[in-house]
Amino acid sequence: MDRRYDGPFVDSRAKVIVSTALFVLLLIGLSCCNYSGQGMPPKFGDYEAQRHWMEVTINLPLQEWYISSPSNNLTYWGLDYPPLTAYHSYAMGFIGNLINTKWFALLSSHGIEDPNLKVFMRFTVFLAMLFYLKGAYNFLGQTKLVDMKTFLICVMSPGLLLIDCGHFHLSCGTQIASYSTEATTKLSQPRIKNYGKVSSYGAFLKENVTKGSMGGDVRKTVQELGHKYNALTPQQKADFKVKAEKWSEARAEAFHALPSEEQARLIESQKQHRAALREKRLKAESREEHKEMIKVIGKKPMTSFQIFFTEYVQKHKMENLPMSEQMKAAGMEFGKLEDSVKDELRNRNKDVLSKWIKAKKEYLAKLNNVQQ
Asked: Which of 15, 80, 211, 369 has the most Cβ atoms closer than 10 angstroms to its Cβ?
């Protein structure tokens, strides 16, 4: 029940000091504990994600923060949050780089677990949590809800403390701070909400993408839609945000109205769909990384079968036949060759292929900062 408190929000300055001190002591206590992913390669948890985003933003130009390249492997904690998160990472990384350049050295700092770096990273969480503390004060000051008990429940929330401070995920405190200031500052909420996924763009796509309209050059279509969305006025984007919220509410109501068995089936189907999308994205990123690698070390020299296949197709003038038939015919003939002939084919590119494989290992070791 919504109980109201008509007296002063805090009847004593001592209560504010004591409650704030308890809040800080909790943060300090959590900071002394381990974090999820500590000592667990290859990704080391969200701690490494926050550190890596600082590494990327202070070492690369802004236009490369969200693009996969040899210096920015998006499969290794790629920056996937809106720009305000990136700017926050840049500010914290800039300060940390002044203290110790090794903490955020491009590529070579992957997986670093320096105890002094951990202290600095905890400090960055402290700064983010100050937004939450201020938000709790502002929210309760405006609504006058259940005085000090409600305030203590807000600031001592185990979920927020464990996720933001313990687990190194900084979106909860800043999100709640944005809600508390909505009544006084219209600009703060959309800015702070850029820490999380923005749904107004989804509503924009829902209205502008029809079934079958993404055929052809999908990348070009997505870029055009992105430019079109960025050209919208703030009010138009806000309108799409409202549409997205209404759409989500309607979907949620329809889902909860279904039988429990159907809900479970839909949840499992969605998990499989997301897994398939994730696999597809990883394959696409792998192709992009392969293209970048080819630019650096060149194309892979042909193997013995590739040499035989090329010469066989040309000799028998099979260029116009389907690839499956070419492979079948060449494979059958290759299997009939003497071992000495295969060795001769293999030795043609043996040295070049060995050098290429070595160059590939060195490239991947530099890219991933791990021994291959």
From this structure: 369
pLDDT of residue 53: 92
CA distances from 162 to 35, 111, 266 (A): 9, 22, 30
**Is this prediction's pTM over 0.85?**
no
Range with lowest mean pLDDT among 80-94, 140-154, 349-363: 140-154
3-state secondary structure 65-106: CCCCECCECCCCCCCCCCHHHHHHHHHHHHHHHHHCHHHHCC
- 90/171 Cα distance (integer angstroms): 16
Q: Report how many helices (DSSP H) and strands (DSSP E) the chain contains, helices first.
A: 16, 0
**Calpha distance 26→23 (Å, rounded):** 5
Token reading at 50: 């926050």
pLDDT of residue 235 exceeding 70, the answer is: yes
The full set of domain ranges for the chain reads 13-193, 199-257, 296-368
The two tokens of residue 239 are 């309108």
Which fold does the domain 296-368 belong to in CATH?
DNA Binding (I), subunit A (1.10.30)
9 is written with which tokens?
A: 């929000």
| DSSP-based three-state secondary structure for 4 | strand
